[in-house]
């Protein structure tokens, strides 16, 4: 494990990221990528492996950290969770999620949404603990301190409950963008990655103004160790050879809508998932 000192965090990281996400909420809500019309009609936003690994949620409470516009959160309610709570630092995202919940006939007693920083979740959410604390893909890279995240998330897991995380594999951030075959970046780097690219993954051509973003790479070992140090027991760590989007041009879309390397290419993990429980 790297013992290099942690580089300084850009002082505007939170505000820059918030402005970036606030601006992209209406773009995402109107995009084919999120396809809210299909979601309203009943399409499940969750990935099949998440549903299988989390298991039965009927009658359980679930907290979704960094929920964006709430599609995954509301999908867990559709799967039978007694109450879901989504938390995100973007006010427009939370407003959109609340609106969607209302359209689906899910009142705040079934689906509540809170606007707050994830590090402040313990003080912001309505209950002190939940049967399931869930974090979906594309979340951890926006946080500079993975230990603080783990402590916060673990504190919200009820005795006998668990945290479930699905995330893009950090190894993919080490590879060259053109081929996805050469290691060109340091896997253990703690440097902030500052980007100014306009548009968004849901619409690359969207005209945007707030383009500065600040991200971090967190090795899988750091995530697992942080959760264990926070008092949770790791039940499993699964690595997946598929991605939700064409992270590299060489990836091919399969019949299941996941993207993978061609059969003549060696595979690497593109995503991972883990479950960590709190003893009863």
TrEMBL record:
GO molecular function: methyltransferase activity
Pfam family name, one: Methyltransf_25
Domain Methyltransferase per the UniProt entry, residue ranges: 63-161
CDD domains linked: AdoMet_MTases (cd02440)
InterPro entries membership: Methyltransf_25 (IPR041698), SAM-dependent_MTases_sf (IPR029063)
Keywords linked to the UniProt accession: Methyltransferase, Transferase
Protein name as annotated: Class I SAM-dependent methyltransferase
